[in-house]
Description:
CATH topology: Alpha-Beta Plaits
Number of strands: 4
Number of domains: 1
Number of helices: 2
Strand order of the largest sheet: 2-3-1-4
Amino acid sequence: MTTFHITGLTCPSCQKLITKRILTIPDVVEVTVELTGKTTITAPREILKSEVDSVLTGTHYAVETT
């Protein structure tokens, strides 16, 4: 399990968009995105910040490690 803090969330639509994009990362099994920005990713390997940055390219969301 890997946890990141994502900034820029304002509503449930933000949660859905971020979840959908992170689920495209290979090996990701589950994603939990809270409105506070806390994002938990379940995968059989560590998910790198660069991978999350990549799938969020073109959005106003920013990823910070926690």
